[in-house]
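LAB NOTEBOOK - FOLDING QUEUE
OPERATOR: T.R.
BATCH SIZE: 2
PURPOSE: Compare the predicted structure-token outputs for two unrelated chains run back to back under identical settings.
PRIORITY: normal
REVIEWER: second-year student, initials M.K.

ITEM 1
FIELD SEQUENCE / FIELD STRUCTURE:
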Amino acid sequence: MLGLLALILSMLALARPEIRTLTVQSVQGWLFTRLQISESEDEQQQVLLRSLAAASTDLSPLQMTLVQAVRSKYKIAPEPLNALILEVFDLADRSALDATLILAVIGVESNYNPFANSPTGAKGLMQVIPEVHSEQFTPYGGTMAIFDPKTNLRIGVKILKECINLTGSLEEGLRLYKAGEESVSQETEYISRVMAEQERLKQAIPKNSKEADTKASPNPNTSPKK
């Protein structure tokens, strides 16, 4: 049966467009039946996969505090920001970076615009240059994935972590992350802006928050590239 399916798919390229469309629809229907997936369930899953949004009930109190702090400066709908915050916290845990640092870089780099584009060709939330880091996008289907917020964020955080590790300090890591785009004086200004934005976010966190101490504070042994 699978051999027959492969044969059908291989013939699609030779078929007329209307026949190809009908065949694809028939194959999809067969697969959904085999996997016991209804059309409504498939549509729901596709929407969930495409959607970058989350309910506030999915967030911890600390995460909600940071959502409010970000929204107080940047005009962003809460639902996509909720999903972005969840992704940032996951990446912060895995990279041993401060979540507020990642959020500060996003704010300074792109103003939370996932479609931002700089004169030098840097794109997306973390302003990654696709020509420089094209190999990073291979697992995600190519450089067009740079406009997917989560993909851009994951690659940007990976590059930032590499920059910090390579230089041995947060400040120099940020300088390397920005290197090649600006003059030295502008790189210094960039570092100051990121640090100021991170401090603003930290100030929004209640001082007695235990969760803040364990999840939003930087690892003292971690020395934060583009």
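ITEM 2
FIELD SEQUENCE / FIELD STRUCTURE:
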Amino acid sequence: MMNMRQMFPAMLFGLLLFAGCRQDMHDQPRFKPLSKSDFYTDLRSSRPLVEGTVARGQLHEDAYLYTGMMRNSATPGDYMPFPATREVLARGRERFNIYCTPCHSRLGDGKGIVPSRGFAKMPPSFHIARLQKAPLGYFFDVITHGFGVMPDYSAQINPQDRWAIVAYIRALQLSQNAASNDIPAGQQIPSPAPRLRGDPPSGATLPEFLPESAPPSPRTTNKLERSK
């Protein structure tokens, strides 16, 4: 059996080991979020951002792209901040069908499924004279901030996609109100329907188009795919 003299070195080592186990990092002085602090004159532990601070990717130098308003004014502009290519229109159609058709319908006539089920107010048709004359920036601003009973969609739709939807709305307006002289030479009226390969699609399968009649794919050709 070990005597006290033999156990003393082990006991001393254990004592020194436990003496070094401090909780300074665990119990260091800190502020709990939104708690009161007597250190600052406003008594807030959560401090405001330094003036001029800009989050990464949020500089927004192109004011028109992010607001739809002319510089230093509250007047909506009537031009696209980037070219309205076929790919942009295809992306706009995709986003429009996801976010807008429940109320506005695929034609933009305001007869979507939500108003037909007793919603308090039917949205106006995009094809009335007032909205046909509305500048593009007006539609962007409504998508961004909402209007009346319509909520804003700024959280769901990024600015580039909002502009793509605006371009598609203008295309919808043209499609429902075009005159015969607006039709390009050689264009068949109505346009030929795309041809499918194999059986028609079901609710669980997507259509497979023949290459020469396939519509543009917004996922493979659209460069605006940034966030969803």
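REVIEWER COMMENT (ITEM 2): The domain at 73-178 is CATH 1.10.760.10 (Cytochrome Bc1 Complex; Chain D, domain 2).
FOLLOW-UP: none requested
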